[in-house]
Amino acid sequence: MRTKPQSPLINTPSLAGLALVVAMLFDAALSIQGLVPDQASLFPALAHFLDTQQIAERLHTGTALIAFTSGMILAVSLILIPMQRVYRAREARLLRERERLEAYNAKLAHQAANDGLLGIANRREFERVLELEWRRAARERQPLGLLMIDIDCFKRFNDSYGHQHGDTCLREVAGVLKAAAARPGDLVARYGGEEMVILMPHTSLEGANLIAERIHTMLAERALPFPDSPVAAHVTVSIGVSSLLPVRDANRATLVQQADEGLYLAKDTGRNRTASVPHLRLLHAADGSATWASQGQRA
Ligand SMILES: Nc1nc2c(ncn2[C@@H]2O[C@H](COP(=O)(O)OP(=O)(O)OP(=O)(O)O)[C@@H](O)[C@H]2O)c(=O)[nH]1
Question: ipTM of this predicted complex?
Fold first, then answer.
């Protein structure tokens, strides 16, 4: 007569021993597959056992016997590895790796937003911040000021003293700009070549002119030698100024265009000075769109 097959009964000297065997085999299988087991989710009961038994810090050895009803007895040598210590070391390694990656990402983000030569924001970062500040200024109904700064006769400076000195001169001027516009919201950026810009939230034309005058004064005090300059014995700049009361959907480029026109005016009228073109006002068309226009112009 055939007997009904019985499900194997597991008989071990200790339940914890069995848990360890299962855990170790499982862990080994996962390791072979190249997976990193997560102790907290895989073996919470075992972790709890190790914690409560205060044995996690030491190595234990012993033998566990697993008896099956079929008669088979499995003798397993147990090496109780303090997995918590192993996992802690793994966690520490992962943490170090995460910190290294975070620092690397921060470095990459900094490189993507800054000009390596001058140590100020680059054009891309300027465009990004201009968009943000434009919207913020529109919300808060505050003016947004902009200076466009160009070193006078810089080609002659390079030709006379070499490009390396030219680079040093650019860095010095960038340093002066950062010192002149030191509010937390001010952004000094390289716009291209030897042209730099300063974006100044909450700044009217009057305020922007004040910063421009401060730059001229600081450069005169700094007196970077430029004996070949037809303008002065030291390095000077020309500055175009603009300030607008932003409206959300109006063209942001107008702020830059106005400062650019002011810069050309400053160059045309003798350099080493600040200029701005007549203020624009915003015209609202019947379809709701808004455009900037000079005084007297109709929508
Ligand atoms: N050393 C150095 N020179 C640069 C750099 N970027 C642009 N330049 C130089 O800046 C000079 C700009 O010259 P121009 O635009 O002709 O104007 P300028 O000589 O400054 O004359 P004005 O602007 O009319 O006063 C060129 O000679 C460029 O080669 C840079 O990163 N380093």
Answer: 0.90
Domain boundaries, the chain: 15-111, 114-294
Instruction: For residue 169, give the ligand 1 atom closest to its CA.
Output: 1
Known catalytic membership, residue 194:
yes
For the stretch 43-89, pLDDT in tens is 444 555 555 444 445 555 555 555 555 666 656 555 656 666 677 78
Q: Which CATH code fits 114-294?
A: 3.30.70.270
Q: How far apart are CA 30 and CA 41, in angstroms?
A: 14
What's the gap in Å between 158 CA and the centre of ligand 1?
A: 7
CA–CA gap between residue 93 and residue 83 (Å, rounded):
15
Q: How far is the CA of 194 from the centre of ligand 1 (A)?
A: 5
Query: Which residue's CA is the nearest one to ligand 1's atom 29?
Result: 155
Please pick, among 102, 194, 206, 261, the residue that the annotation labels catalytic.
194
